[in-house]
Structure formats: C-alpha cells, structure tokens
Amino acid sequence: MKKVQPRDEQIVLDPKRYLVSETDAKGVITYCNSYFRDVAGYSEEELVGQPHNIIRHPDMPKLVFKLLWETIQSGQNINAVVKNLAKDGRYYWVFTEFNIRKNADDGEIIGYMASRKAVSKHVVEIISKLYKELLEIENTKGIDEAQKYLDVFVKDKGSDVTFANIMENIHKFY
Questions:
Q1: CA diameter of the chain
Q2: Domain that holds residue 81
Q3: Which of these, 28, 90, 139, 143, is most buried using a 10 Å CB contact count?
C-alpha cells in the first residue's frame, strides 16, 4: 500500500460516535466499524488484514506504542490519547480505550478491541506538547532516552502516578 503523506488538516469527529476496531493478537485488523472506515478514509477491504499501524501518524512517538503494546500484551487494558492518520493525509485525535479479548477456555489473549472517541482541544494541546518532546528525543537520542524523559515527567506528577494513569485521567493532571 502506498505511503500516506501527512497534511496539516484535522478531521473533526462527531463527539457522539465511536470509531471501533478489533485486531488479532499481532495487531492485524479483523474488524472496523463504518464510522472508523469513514473517518480513516479506507474501505473495509483495504483495512481488514492490514496491521493497525496503517493509521499511525508520524507525529506519534514510537515510545507511546511500545508502552501500549507492553501493557495490553501483559493482559491489562489501557487508555491513551492518539493522533491518527487518514488515507488522505488528514489527521484526527482520539481518546482510545484498548481492551483485551481472551479465549474463554484458556484465558489466552486472542486479540484487542479499541474504541475511540473525540478528545477535547484542551487535552490535545497538553498531550501534543509531550508527544512532540518525546518524538524529538527519539529522533535525536533514541527511544531509551525518550523513556527516561517520560519516566521523569511521570514521576513529577506524583510517586503513585503511571503513564496509564496520566492517559486515563489527563484532565486531572493539568
């Protein structure tokens, strides 16, 4: 599939609707609802069978996805604010709830479901600053240095605070 060139134009989401997708345990899309397809600009045939990172925006730090994957692969659900890339190059910010799907018989993780909704402009302003810092550090010093920066950032919010806490309750931290 052709690489999408980002452009500086935001897609405004309907605050009453959810973008939903499901993947297998490796992150390959197995389902996406019609609103997800409409916003992303892809047909069902273009999405199903593709890695979910087909919509990853280059403004997103790799570290954020590393932490998300580590969390869900360990069996824990997590929420995150994410900037996604549509097929036409526009972007959209979402608050995403990542949930694990397990085999009822043996408890093995068989996939993931993500429900996304519109996120406030205030939250985007806050998180985009952090993501820009992380991305700059990743690009100049590597992902390990970005992790160190994030660890200090999180610790400054309180001793019992985690990255997951910040993502879930970002409005409380600012």
A1: 47
A2: 19-173
A3: 90
